[in-house]
Amino acid sequence: MSQDIREVVIIGSGPAGLTAAIYNARARLNPLVVAGVEYGGQLMGTTDVENFPGFPEGIMGPQLMMNMLNQAKNHGAEILYKYVTKVDFSGDVKKLTVDGQEVQARSVILAVGSSPRLLDIPGEKEYWGKGVSSCATCDGAFYRDKIVAVIGGGDSAMEEANFLTKFASKVYLIHRRDEFRASKAMQEKVFANEKIEVLWNTKVDEVKGDDKLVNSLEITDTVKGESKNLEVNGMFLAIGHIPNSDFLDDQVSRDDRGFVDVVSGHTNTNIPGVFVAGDVHDHHYQQAITAAGMGCMAALDVEKYLQSLD
Questions:
Q1: Active site (annotated) includes residue 138
Q2: Which residue of 68, 88, 103, 168 is surrounded by the most CB atoms within 10 Å?
C-alpha cells in the first residue's frame, strides 16, 4: 500500500464501489478500493440474481460480484481487504485510518452500503438466502405458488406484501402490534388483497427448515402468549435498513437515520472532495443496479472534481 497521496480512495466493494472503481481505473486515477475483509456487499449472501441487465439466464450473486471485482482489477484498481475505522475530512487531503495506518487521498467515494435490520432470532442468519430475505423485488419470483411471510408494519412491509402476491399463493403479514404505522392508502391495498392475511400482535421467535430451505416459523401471540408453528416457504424482513456509516461520526452530513446526504442532486456530500454512492445514501430503491448506477455517477463526479483542482 503506497504512502503517496491517492487521487481517489473508494470505501466499499459492493456494486456501487466496484462500478466506481471500474470507471476511475479506466480514467487512469489508480483507485484504491478498501473492500473490507469480505468484498461484494449484500449480493454475496444471495443466490440467483435475475434482474441485473445483461444476464438473461440470471447469475449467482457471488459470481456477479467476482466479475465486477476482476473487472476493476483488470483495469488497474488496487483492492485492499481491510476496513476503514476512522476518517478525517477536515483538510484538502482526506485522511483515512485503515488497520492502524493512515491513507491519504485527494478524493473519497463512500460506498459502504447498508445492512438489513434483523430480528436477531435463531435460524435467521442460518437461512439467509435460503428462504430469508430482505428484498421482495430481488427474490419474489422464486416463490411462485408458495407461502411466504412478511415482517413489519410500515409502508415498506405493505409494498413487499402486495408485490409478493404476484407470485406467492398466500402472504402472511406479521406485525408485533395491533395497528400499522404505514400510510392509510398502503394499508387499504393490503386489506383489499385476498392473498394477504394479517397476523396482529404476533412476533417471530425462530426460523425453521430442513438442511437447505425454510419450511416454517415459530410464532407467538403477544397478547395470549400462545405459540405455534406457521408453515411458510420464505420470510421477508421489512423492518428497515441500517446504513454502515457509524465510522464517519460527524465528518459528513447524515440524516437522522444515518444515511449520508447529498447536495445539488448529484453524489457530492457537504464536504468538497467526498462523494457517496449506493445504499449508504439510497434508502428507497436499494437495488444492485441503482447502486451500480450511482457508483458510475460518483466516479464521474470525482473526475470532474479532480480536474477542477488541476
A1: yes
A2: 168
Q: Which of 4, 120, 139, 178 is catalytic?
A: 139
Grid cell listed for 113: 452500503
Catalytic position from the list 4, 92, 138, 210: 138
- pLDDT of residue 2 exceeding 60, the answer is no
- Please report, for the chain, the start and end positions of each structural domain, with discontinuous segments joined by +: 6-115+241-309, 118-237
Count of C-beta atoms within a 10 Å radius of residue 115 = 14
pLDDT-derived band at 212 (thresholds 50, 70, 90) equals confident
Q: Rounded to an integer, what distance in angstroms lies between the CA atom of residue 67 and that of residue 286?
A: 20
Half-sphere exposure (CA, 13 Å, Cβ side) for 40? 15
CB count in 10 Å sphere of residue 66 = 14
Question: Of the listed 135, 279, 282, 301, which one is catalytic?
Answer: 135
The whole-number pLDDT of residue 197 equals: 98
Q: Would you identify the CATH topology of the domain 118-237?
A: FAD/NAD(P)-binding domain (3.50.50)
DSSP character at residue 134 = S
How far is 227 from 219, CA to CA, in rounded Å?
A: 6
- Known catalytic membership, residue 296: no
Q: Which CA distances in Å does 42 have to 37, 38, 203, 210, 286?
A: 14, 10, 25, 24, 10
Cell representation of residue 64: 456477479
Q: How far is residue 277 from each of residues 19, 298, 306, measured CA to CA in Å?
A: 10, 6, 17
Range list of β-strands (E), 93-239: 94-98, 101-105, 108-110, 114-116, 132-133, 147-151, 170-174, 196-199, 202-209, 214-221, 227-231, 234-237
Enter the DSSP assignment of 86.
E
Would you identify the CATH topology of the domain 6-115+241-309? FAD/NAD(P)-binding domain (3.50.50)
Cα-Cα-Cα-Cα dihedral sign, residues 95, 96, 101, 106: negative
